[in-house]
Amino acid sequence: MQQRTIFIGLIALSAACQPDAPKHFVYSPTITVFESEPEQKMALVILPPKQVPDGMVYVPGGYTQMGSNEGLDQEKPTFWVLVKPFLMDQHEVTVREFRAFVKATGFKTEAERFGDAGVFNDTTEEWKLVEGTNWQFPYGPASGPAADNMPATQVSWNDAQAYAKWAGKRLPREIEWEHAARNANNSRTLYPFGNSLTNNGTFLANTWNGKFPDYDEVKDGYHRAAPVGTFGKSPLGLSDMSGNVWEWCEDPKVSYTDLLKQTPVTITAQTERVQRGGSYLCEPGWCHGYRVSGRSGSTAESSLMHVGFRCVKDV
User: Angle formed by the axes of helices 157-166 and 95-105, to 10°?
Assistant: First the structure.
């Protein structure tokens, strides 16, 4: 397979006028990366749009510290970013929304072309490729079709890219995703809504309640995916930024050390793309991925029952 090389950061910004300023570079047209916290943070004078499209949330720009010193190695080292404002889907793309895309374009997902997709078997406690599994039947044909208000899963990164292009949007950069999960104000809580998964006994996220994979007590009411928005919204107005299903991001998954060094990334069939937000299969003893700083990844053609996506749009 032909390989192509991209660069994590291409433009180094001069700090000649600010001799004590931390090193920084342009990561993307909407993101500047800093190795350490800037002493002076300039205000972003960008007015929000007069009208936000239905189903989207305005994410103000600003400074955010990425990662966690208390997290896994892949969440270190922490670093600072300046993110321009953008619009983000309020919730994960639904089966209904994905069906509209398929009807309009005749698109066939990679799971449909391969003829199978990844399903976790509760009995054998193994992941298996199940024939006939796709976005319409995310747990296999025997489990029946997914409801319209469920997050569209069994959608590969490539499939998500095709949907985003059709919708006039794009996948979020990993940095944009965490900026939004931190409520666009660098909130340092474990989750977008605070440090607890519950509030007065009410669950705020769909996660594994028990010891994975041995037992799930289903205290939150859902053993598998829940309809989008079931667990409320973050202070910024976003749903399911913790738990439910992992969400594809634009970026190849690299270490933060390599990102800060602007190390070239060679894209191959084995290159993983970032996933954020955790899923209903996550629990702290196995995968605490639904923390704001949690990270995962899969190859671009992978289709899994606990992975979906949401889109963003530039303002």
Answer: 70
